[in-house]
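Blinded run. Sample ID left blank on purpose so nobody reads anything into the name before looking at the predicted structure. Input follows.
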Amino acid sequence: MTPGALDGMVTPADAEAIAAEVLPAGVERFVTGGAGGELTLAANRAAFDRLHLLPRVLADVSATSTTATLLADPAALPLAVAPMAYQRAVHPDGELAAARAAFTAGVPFTACTFSSMPVEDIAATGATVWFQLYWLRDRGVTKELLARAEAAGARALMLTVDTPYMGRRQADMRGAFTLPEGVSAVHFERGRDGVPSGARDGVSAIAAQTAGVVDPSLSWSDLDWLRDHTRLPLVLKGILDPADADRAAAHGADGIVVSNHGGRQLDGALPALDALPAVVDTVAGRSRILLDSGVRSGTDILKALALGASGVLVGRPVLWGLAAGGEAGVSRVLTLLREELENALALAGCPDPASAARLRTARAPGGDLR
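Blinded prediction complete.
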């Protein structure tokens, strides 16, 4: 993809169209697809579409800012790159290209347990790195990953709590999806728990690998063990029920990510945006709240802020940008999100992300004001 084509992108959705053209069919399905009948995948977007904002007027927005504090550190946008596995399946530079773009944009990059580049190399890009952890069957490997993330300079630990098993992603199963040659989960090298290389009919190699290494026995009591083995701020990703959010805050979680895994886990789960207000009300400031699943535009970010989130995680648009043009493609997507957010904040009468919390919202048609 030429730089001129990237400059011609007007929205992150333009990157999606380019990615659909350039990615192999199996990889494109892996990135874009969801679980089951993809009801939750579609519902995530529908939730954003039916939420309406009431802009404020006669507010001086001649000088606006997009800076925010997501956890402990300031960011240029109320946005972090979501944890996403195997990014070299999308582009040869994989996580390194995406992390360099995040560094340029001034936003955190979340390195995944199943990354195709080592956390040390990702951190060397200069980006603010958060490390995402799946709860592993092998506690020794878990301790090693925690130590590596801390030594590399990770600023937070994000524990994914909605994946005791992988959701039934039917497109991957039908295509017996396996990773492209040379792409692997590098944190499991040296012959331990590698991704199966052979495809089998009706089986996703990714699902088989996840089942082999992720421990489904994860429970609240394990958070104490985790606290004993890391000094990093702890974020729990994958919470929808306010009762779970309340318990997470009581356990001292520094952050909570309201998420249904982008529609890739339980099909039929509540859209994350619809779950957000009750979580915000229940947590009542005890933990920072981030929103993940379905964010596609700057206006989407504004809607999440209006419902009380401190910021959002952005996933698929980053992968589309990566496919479209490597680091330059991700940079273009992040630039578009910044430009869209700047415009949306100003038109809503908000000089900065923090002021968006005072906006009222309504769900259409005929929804009550909030």
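Unblinding after everyone has recorded impressions. The two ends are 44 Å apart (CA to CA).
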